[in-house]
Amino acid sequence: MALRYVYNSSGGDPVIESFPLAAVTTVAGSLLYYNAAGFITNAYVDANTVTTVLVHGVGAEAVVNAAGAAGDLNQPMICTKDARYIADTTGAPVRTDIGTNVTMDSILVVDQDDPVTTSSGVVKQLNLVTGSTVLCSVNYGTP
User: 94-102: long-range contacts at Cβ-Cβ below 8 A with a sequence spacing of 24 or more?
Assistant: First the structure.
């Protein structure tokens, strides 16, 4: 369903910033990144669409800009690099996958059994939470 902010590992509140949004509709908790034109987007094609080099944060709220032009609206997002999230996964995460960097299966769902060492590993799984969720962090830069 989404990445849900839980806490900041260094304490305090998350940093929320706003940046110009592409002509898309976002939802709270979606992973956001820069597109080729330099606007924030949540458009997703495959696991290589979103890379650690392009990741900019997690949507703090939904913004509807699908009918507008790129840059008409700004997207508020959590940009705190040490923020921790509960994330939905594509299947049942297992202990042996904890500690790995994984891809996203959509802009909202972590592919818990796709460990990678490339820049497509945008989420680091930190702990098991339930049968289909993990505690995780977002990777900024290359893993």
Answer: 94/128, 95/128, 97/125, 98/125, 98/126, 98/127, 98/128, 98/134, 99/124, 99/125, 99/126, 100/124, 100/125, 101/125, 101/139, 101/143
Three-class secondary structure assignment of the chain: CCEEEEEECCCCCCCEEEEEECCCEECCCCEEEECCCCCEECCCCCCCCCCCCCEEEEECCCEECCCCCCCCCEEEEECCCCEEEEEEECCCCCHHHCCCEEEECCCCCEEEEEECCCCCCCEEEEEEEECCEEEEEECCCCC
d(CA 37, CA 27): 21
Cα distance between the two ends of the chain: 24
Global pTM value: 0.93
pLDDT tens sequence across 23-54: 999 999 999 999 999 999 999 999 888 999 99
Comparing C-alpha atoms, which of 35, 29, 81 is closest to residue 58? 29
